[in-house]
Design a protein that fits this description.
Blueprint lengths: L12 E5 L3 E6 L3 H10 L6 E3 L3 H6 L6 E6 L20 H18 E11 L3 E2 L2 E2 L2 H12 L3 E9 L16 E8 L19 E3 L2 E3 L7 H9 L5 H19 L9 E2 L15 H8 L2 E2 L1
Parallel strand pairs: 2-3, 4-5
Antiparallel strand pairs: 1-2, 5-9, 6-7, 8-9, 10-11, 12-13
Helix pairs in contact: 3-4, 5-6
Bound molecules: S-adenosylmethionine.
Length: about 280
């Protein structure tokens, strides 16, 4: 973090920040301040103010659980205190960021996670692919394990006056770890699955399947005999009952001769043609 205009001349000082409440802010003796903070019971944030590389060099290895950062774009915004983002060429920008992330690797615990939000830039009309250049540099040269590239869909995005290309309205949020076994609490971030509902008297599954379309397909089938059609209707009714009773939340029905091919009709490459050729229908 770099807030030099507001930087206290003497370390440490107390600061009240809108999002964090009371914080301790220090701009020197980082090692000592960090060690004091570690044994202190307070959970108020400690803000270390200075050049990121200089600050991190003073911090002990294997001591942080998580790092989340959103570094400056390359060549887009000038921050008051300068810093990363104004390198004359993008390769130096990538190198500078990677030097910082190598320190992140050192200070992070084996169980820790590193979340990197990073946006792309153009140079002479060419989209540079900076997020992936950086991500691959980290996996190839620093031993990071990349677990996810989450797309931050910015919905509206910032102003873009270009008349000869689409706007870019996403950024990557990379999740890196140091070792295959790391702390991850999946249950705390699960969203509840979509539920079945009844719309105008019809059961609608979690993904919007109603059964009406399948009934029509059975009716129009030129492949199924009348007897096979009766069985298919009955089985469909039974599945719809299970959806309505909450036993299952979703289904798909594959009817022989009625299925659009997804990639090929060849039985070698697709399980679906093989399945639907054999059976009258499957769920
Ligand atoms: C995109 S902003 C993100 C700020 C912060 N994460 C937030 O959400 O408010 C990037 C920040 O990195 C800071 N910065 C750039 N180079 C730096 C350096 N060498 N050391 C520390 N901070 C730096 C800039 O001043 C700017 O505040």
């Amino acid at each position: 973090m770099r807030i030099e205009d507001d930087a206290p001349s003497q370390s440490p000082q107390n600061l009240r920040l809108p999002l964090f409440g009371d914080c301790l802010i220090v701009n020197q003796d980082f090692q000592e301040q960090f060690e004091n903070y570690r044994v202190n019971k307070s959970i108020a944030p400690l803000l270390l103010l200075g050049d990121v590389l200089e600050v991190m060099k003073e911090l002990p290895s294997d001591s942080f659980d998580c790092c989340m950062t959103s570094p400056p774009y390359w060549g887009k915004r000038e921050y008051d205190a300068g810093g990363i983002g104004w390198e004359p060429d993008f390769k130096t920008y990538v190198d500078n960021l990677c030097s910082v992330f190598s320190e992140v690797h050192r200070v992070l615990k084996k169980t820790g996670s590193f979340w990197l939000n990073i946006g792309d830039s153009y140079y002479h009309k060419n989209l540079l692919g900076l997020p992936w250049r950086i991500a691959l540099n980290l996996t190839d040269n620093q031993g990071w394990i990349l677990r996810n590239s989450v797309i931050w869909n910015k919905v509206k995005g910032g102003p873009d006056h270009s008349k000869d290309r689409l706007r870019n309205i996403h950024e990557n949020l990379f999740h890196f770890v140091k070792s295959p076994k790391y702390y991850y609490d999946i249950d705390s971030i699960r969203s509840s699955p979509r539920k079945t509902k009844v719309v105008n008297g019809s059961v609608v599954s979690a993904t919007g399947v109603t059964g009406i379309r399948y009934k029509r397909k059975i009716e129009l089938s030129t492949d199924l005999s009348e007897n096979e059609k009766r069985n298919a209707y009955q089985a469909l009714e039974e599945i719809l009952r299970q959806v309505s009773d909450g036993i299952i939340s979703d289904f798909r029905m594959i009817i022989r001769g009625q299925q659009r091919t997804t990639h090929s009709d060849s039985e070698k490459v697709s399980g679906r043609p093989k399945n639907s050729k054999k059976k009258d229908f499957t769920f």
